[in-house]
């Protein structure tokens, strides 16, 4: 049954949806490689573009000045690829590990300053690598024996070349920063469909949604105060974010002390990812118990509700654009989460999802029967999942 659902879901997906799904699965499995591939591919293309511009400029200059330039662009392409790989890997590794370990709680101004300094160092190293290593073997042969050898080797010419790289890399960095920000906001694989206008008109999709709400939030605000409580929420959500990739989860919204997550059906059902995710978050908090107890005197505890069904997705807004999901599926998932306290449970799922995923042999599951949810005319079958079987 599960295999049939996945096959049917894949057949019904558009090419854009399949591209997005593949990109998100790849990013979930190989987060570092995904980050590096974006950086390397972009900078290789950007450097090839710069090489073509310089090549055309050299041809234009050679037609009006007393030197001969061989019409061979492939050496510049090779240089562009080498520099693109080196700069992409270097900048990508630095950004990735700094973002993971140092930038979580740093002010934006310090982050920008430090990344700018790192970029300047890398550009300087690339310019020196080009001048002292690549020049003799690749660049110099582009000029004939009658050419002015000091045209390239003159120190002032290299200063202009360095300034050119600074200006060009600065504007290209703005572009790659935009791409990375889109990936962070919407998730991997969304930029291309956005550019193609996939979400401009409402589209129907089947998805899984989870609403996670912090327990005893009112009491915690009173005990911690607003500022400390905000830091507590920030740290809790940051730790939840670290668990997203292995379970193919996507952040849909942050609403106060509540976080809304979503899965494509094939990803959420795969190896019970949408269920295991909740318990992985609990484990994440337990692993960091020393930090939370030291800073806040308590651990985060969330209650959650999960449901699966059809929704519509559309790009909304003019001043601030976003991708929004609409439909009864979200309302039902939110209502399921809202009755956790009524049943003294921390994790509730709809029986519809339970039937699709088949949890009886993998989790401690208890059926609660048909429950009347607020705002709904028909009762909804609900089950609690109290833990993973060992």
Task: Name the features.
390 residues; alpha+beta; Alpha-Beta Plaits; 2 domains; eight-stranded mixed sheet; 15 helices; 8 strands; 17% strand
Whole-number tally of structural domains: 2
Shape: elongated
Structural class: alpha+beta
What's the CATH first level of the largest domain?
Answer: Alpha Beta
Give the helix level as a range of percent: 55-70%
Query: Low-confidence spans: pLDDT under 50, at least 5 residues?
Result: 1-12, 144-151
Distance between the termini: 25 Å
Instruction: Please report the total strand number as a whole number.
Output: 8
CATH superfamily name of the largest domain? Nucleotide cyclase, GGDEF domain
Tell me the Rg in angstroms: 27 Å
Q: CATH topology of the largest domain, what is it called?
A: Alpha-Beta Plaits
Please describe the biggest sheet, giving its number of strands, its sense, and whether it closes into a barrel. Answer: 8 strands, mixed
User: Could you report the average pLDDT, rounded to the nearest whole number?
Assistant: 79
**In CATH terms, what is the architecture of the largest domain?**
2-Layer Sandwich
Element string (H = helix, E = strand)? HHHHHHHHEHHEEHHHEEHEHEE
């Amino acid at each position: 049954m599960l295999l049939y659902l996945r096959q049917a879901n894949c057949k019904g997906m558009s090419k854009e949806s399949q591209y997005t799904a593949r990109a998100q699965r790849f990013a979930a499995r190989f987060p570092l490689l995904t980050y590096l591939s974006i950086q390397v591919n972009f900078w290789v293309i950007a450097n090839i573009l710069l090489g073509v511009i310089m090549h055309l400029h050299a041809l234009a200059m050679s037609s009006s000045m007393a030197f001969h330039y061989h019409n061979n662009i492939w050496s510049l392409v090779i240089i562009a690829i080498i520099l693109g790989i080196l700069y992409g890997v270097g900048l990508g590794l630095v950004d990735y590990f700094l973002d993971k370990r140092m930038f979580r709680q740093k002010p934006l101004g310090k982050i920008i300053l430090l990344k700018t300094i790192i970029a300047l160092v890398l550009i300087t190293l690339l310019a020196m690598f080009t001048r002292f290593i690549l020049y003799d073997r690749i660049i110099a042969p582009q000029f004939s024996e009658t050419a002015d050898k000091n045209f390239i080797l003159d120190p002032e010419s290299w200063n202009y070349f360095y300034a050119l790289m600074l200006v060009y890399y600065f504007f290209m960095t703005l572009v790659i920063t935009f791409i990375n920000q889109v990936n962070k906001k919407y998730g991997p694989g969304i930029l291309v469909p956005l550019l193609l206008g996939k979400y401009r008109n409402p589209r129907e999709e089947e998805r899984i949604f989870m609403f996670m709400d912090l327990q005893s939030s009112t009491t915690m605000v009173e005990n911690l105060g607003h500022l400390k409580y905000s830091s507590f929420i920030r740290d809790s959500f940051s730790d939840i974010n670290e668990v997203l990739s292995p379970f193919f989860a996507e952040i849909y919204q942050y609403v106060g002390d509540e976080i809304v997550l979503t899965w494509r059906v094939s990803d959420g059902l795969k190896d019970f990812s949408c269920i295991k995710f909740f318990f992985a978050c609990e484990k994440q908090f337990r692993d960091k118990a020393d930090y939370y107890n030291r800073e806040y005197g308590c651990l985060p505890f969330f209650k959650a509700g999960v449901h699966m069904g059809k929704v519509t997705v559309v790009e909304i807004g003019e001043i601030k654009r976003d991708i929004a999901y609409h439909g009864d599926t979200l309302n039902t998932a939110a209502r399921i989460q809202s009755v956790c306290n009524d049943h003294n449970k921390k994790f509730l799922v709809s029986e519809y999802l339970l039937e699709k995923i088949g949890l009886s042999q993998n989790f401690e599951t208890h059926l609660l029967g048909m429950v009347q949810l607020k705002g709904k005319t028909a009762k909804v079958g609900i089950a609690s999942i109290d833990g993973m079987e060992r």
